[in-house]
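Allow me, if you will, to draw on your knowledge of protein folds for a short while. I am sending you one protein, given as its amino acid sequence and as whole-number tokens for its backbone shapes. Kindly check, if you would, that the fold set down in the tokens agrees with what the sequence suggests. The record follows directly beneath this note:
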Amino acid sequence: MCGRIAQYRDAREYARAMTLTTPVFDFDPADRRPGFNLAPGAHPLAVLHDQTVRTIRWGYRPEWAAAQHLPQAINARSDSAASSGYFRDMWRMGRVIVPVDGWFEWRTEAGRSQPYYIHRRSDEPILLAGLSSVTNALEHQSGDGVVIVTVANASGIVDVHGHRPLIFDAQNALRWLDRQIDDSAVTALVGSGMHDEGDLAWHRVSQNVNRAVHDEAALIETID
């Protein structure tokens, strides 16, 4: 499960973390406002297969799903996305990377929902697997969006909902973007995602995270 992310670094730092050789930004990175509490409906940065870095709306609902009043998706489960009507085409041709600095999860404590911020112990960027209906820098259609791929996990605060984002190192992030690899290679990549949660740290943060209108650096600071 992933319902809030932090993405506050300069976009060029994410490009370096991914070891992109020819990144193309369709905006001026210097003008990009830091995001400490990005919710579905926001426009986080995503890296496309051609190393274009652009903003894409977080959330996806194809036209046929909208016509049937089906809900918007913000995550895609790795064990079912390849066969899902929502995600099948994007699984093949719309794989993207959503670079973040961390994400938020909630768990019940003392009768209320307590937010936690999850990040790398090294504070380096985290490269999340994503899927998008946007496949080039110029494309934009009604309903277009991006979702974050999740994987099942067995223990720890990181998977309080039973799933957490699929995390790659730089090499496998580039492989994820490669449209030339076959289905078996994509499946293998999912299995290669980060399993060592010892590289992740988490701490309790302010209840202000609960309202997307709040978006400041203090939201990722520990309250303990």
Notes: Residues 183-192 form the longest helix (10 residues). The first strand starts at residue 5 and ends at 7.
